[in-house]
Design a protein that fits this description.
Layout: H1 4-13, H2 16-19, E1 38-41, E2 46-49, E3 52-53, H3 54-60, H4 63-72, H5 78-89, H6 96-101, H7 111-125, H8 134-159, H9 173-182, H10 188-201, H11 208-218, H12 223-234, H13 242-253, H14 259-268, H15 288-301, H16 305-322, H17 328-338, H18 346-367
Helix pairs in contact: 4-10, 4-18, 7-8, 7-12, 8-9, 8-18, 9-10, 10-15, 10-17, 10-18, 11-12, 11-18, 12-18, 13-17, 14-16, 15-16, 15-17
Length: 392
């Protein structure tokens, strides 16, 4: 093995490309962890959770059923699922200090910034905050999955000058969220559409936010710290914010607008069209087909079929012009807009769905931990002479 002294000499003497054979910008293609949670084949457009095809789960399972699968590596029996759902339903309420803290956030706070702060506040008052045993991690993960929707709904109502609505333990996970937002019990189609969208957002390998959560967990930091890191990474428009940007783009076109002409203008001016292409998938994102179907169904029920029509036209134009398929965020935007949800809640909903996936990765990291500590390639100058301060 070369000693550091000789490595430093080689770094100065050898051409830079010889020293950077293992460099990968954005860590593209680099395997940074082992995981049994999900499998992605980008070439064939395949995704599975714990060995179960995403298409089977999206058609037959619920979000919480899939969470159970991810955490316990088994599909639950009916009694197990009922007990799991019941436990989470009793944990939806926010601690009083968090309820009092949300109205103190600045008026201009974005929902994602509020969610980031809210998760950190929950970590301050969780009775097992610093216990990173697997059993404690499971309990904290359950509380977070239960409380995240309450955080988002409460903040949305507070910023509108309305009182938060207490969770209803009689409603399922997604129906309760919609109820806490509006005070009205949603229809079965709306609740099911939201449930499926969260299922599709649940887990997706070492994406930026999941990797951020695992890096934090690898220091043996607690669950809430790692989830706060996940929320922070998801806030960026190149990750979680893509669904919001996609809807803003659709609004710019309008439900009766010319999507094909919009694409031509955007490409001519080298503008990025949100919701298309993926760092992993070469063909269609397998999650997109389910959201496309739901977008058609929901927009039709809402009497606003134009939003689905313009989405479909834009999708076809991008495939023809650039050979790019839409990803999960594109039709998710149409689904959430058809549900009447504020656009700036689209990314927090992504976070609500992904929280259980982040938690699964945190638990996996804690159980088989090794500190994640990559290296950076130095690109600055070497051997710069020291200049006394009176001569600078």
């Amino acid at each position: 093995m070369l000693r550091p002294f000789f490595v430093a000499i080689l770094a100065r003497a050898l051409p830079r490309n010889i020293m950077t054979d293992q460099r990968a910008r954005g860590l593209a293609g680099v395997v940074a962890a082992e995981s049994a949670l999900s499998f992605i084949d980008g070439e064939t457009g395949f995704l599975s959770y714990r060995g179960y095809d995403i298409h089977a789960l999206a058609r037959h399972a619920s979000y919480l059923e899939s969470v159970y699968l991810l955490w316990y590596d088994a599909l639950p029996a009916a009694s197990e699922l009922a007990a799991f759902e019941g436990t989470l339903a009793t944990q939806r309420g926010l601690p009083e200090v968090v309820r009092r803290g949300l109205p103190l956030l600045p008026d201009e706070s974005s929902p994602m910034a509020a969610l980031r702060t809210g998760v950190s506040m929950l970590g301050q008052v969780d009775p097992e905050a610093d216990d990173i045993s697997h059993e404690a991690d499971l309990r904290k993960a359950g509380r977070l999955v239960a409380q995240m929707p309450t955080l988002v709904a409460a903040f949305d109502r507070i910023r509108k000058g309305l009182d938060p609505i207490d969770p209803d333990p009689e409603l399922d996970h997604c129906a309760n969220f919609l109820y806490m937002l509006t005070g009205e019990r949603p229809g079965a189609t709306a609740a099911r559409a939201l449930d499926t969208s969260l299922l599709l957002y649940l887990e997706h390998g070492l994406n930026a936010s999941t990797f951020a959560a695992r890096v934090v967990a690898s220091t043996l930091a607690d669950m809430h710290s790692a989830i706060t890191a996940g929320v922070s990474a998801l806030k960026g428009p190149l990750h979680g914010g893509a669904n919001e940007k996609a809807m803003q783009m659709l609004l710019e076109i309008g439900p009766t607008g010319d999507a094909s002409a919009f694409v031509d203008r955007a490409l001519e001016h080298k503008q990025k069209i949100m919701g298309f292409g993926h760092r992993v998938y070469r063909g269609e994102d397998p999650r997109a087909s389910h959201l496309r179907r739901m977008a058609e169904e929901l927009s039709g029920e809402a009497g606003a079929a134009g939003w689905y029509d313009v989405s479909r036209a834009l999708e076809k134009a991008m495939l023809e012009r650039k050979g790019l398929h839409c990803n999960v965020d594109f039709y998710c935007a149409t689904v959430y807009y058809s549900l009447g949800l504020p656009i700036d809640l689209f990314t927090p909903l992504f976070a609500i769905g992904r929280t259980a996936g982040w938690a699964a990765h945190v638990m996996e990291q804690h159980m088989h931990n090794r500190l994640i500590r990559p290296r950076a390639e130095y690109t600055g100058e070497l051997d710069r002479p020291w200049v006394p301060i009176d001569r600078r």
